[in-house]
Each structure stands twice: as C-alpha cells, then as structure tokens.
Amino acid sequence: MGEHKTIRYSDTNYYLLRAKGGYLLIDAGWNGKMSVFLRKMYEAGIDPREVNYIMVTHHHHDHAALVNELRTIMGAKLILHKKQVDLLKNGNTEIAKTKQYNLSLKLLDRALRLFIRISYSPIFTNDTDIVIGDDGREVLKEIGINGVIVDTPGHSADSITLITDDGKAYCGDAAMNIFGVKPYPIEAEDYIVVKESWARIISSGAKILFPSHGKEFSVDELR
Length: 223
Ligand SMILES: [Zn+2]
Prior knowledge:
This protein is α/β, with parallel strands linked by helices.
C-alpha cells in the first residue's frame, strides 16, 4: 500500500490506489470525456481492465458521470456509501443548494453552467456491488486497503473521504486547492458543515489531503 497513481484532466484529479488484483479508482468523471479518461489511464501505464473497484467521493458530474461507461470496460465493482445510492440514481448534480465561496466564483459558476452538462446516465447498483453503511474498514481490508471511509458532507450531502492508515485522505471536494482558494471548496451546500467534516478528517488521522481539484496539501491547513 502507500502509493497511488493520478489521472488529471479538466482541473480534476482521479486517484488509483493499489488494491487486490489491481486498482481501486476514486471518482469517475466528466460527461462525454470517456476517451480522454482512457487515454490518460494508458499514459499512466494502467490498463482499464486492471481496475477492479470504483468508488465515488460524491455524485457530482465531474466525479460520477462516467461510472456506467467505465465500470463496463473495467469489469469493476462499485463500492458506494449508502447515502450516495439515491443521488446516483438521479443521474444529476444537485446544485439547487450550492453556494460559491465568493462573488467572482459565483459569476464564473453562472457562466460555466451554460457549457457544462450536469446530468449523466443514472447509476444503479447490482448484486456484485458493495454498499457500505459503516466506516468501511472491513470492506477496504477485503480489497487490500487499510483505511476507513469518513462521512464528510458540506460540499454535498453525500460526500465521503477515504483515509488510509498511513494518513492519505482522498477527500473529493470536501477541501480544494484551486483558483487561488485553499482549503475551502469553491462551492458548497453548507460551509459550516464543511468545517465539521474537516474536524472529522483531522481526528481520523489524516496527514496529507489529496483533493479532486488542485494539488495535495498538508492537513495542517485545515486547522
Ligand atoms: Zn463536487
């Protein structure tokens, strides 16, 4: 354990952790960018069929839109948190409650919404998928990863963070490092709840955050 590979495009990071028989992919986006995703995988030296498990940190289109396409090619199982299941079935980014960090980001968001497709093909679980309702330690151990899943809402209600026992936190959008904003996510449903989630990330033993947007940084920046 320990190392991971990163796929990066459209200002978004996708992490591949070594898991039993291959890799666990954390997040699978964006709409219509399947060919880019696959090209980046090959560039990273990974055959998509080596990915045995897919997890999403939350249901947003830049994290979940390619789940159906990728799981078919990879032959991968989904590992979801139970609170994600209904949102993934909607196949749509829930943005009604989302607020931006500042005014210029709000204006940027309104402009980008004209171009970004936030709906995607609904994601349903099947019998071989794993839906977790606890800290996920047993399930992760079963696939060769020592760590836990921590509930980290605020950016979205269904956001989760995978924290390995050696202190790497794959936090999705619970924290970001993009457009000059760090560690706050540039948008969130509730920034108070984001901070409560940071407290859980810290108390769960995280040392380095690997956000979906921007470069990694020390957990000390959350304090
Ligand atoms: Zn998001």
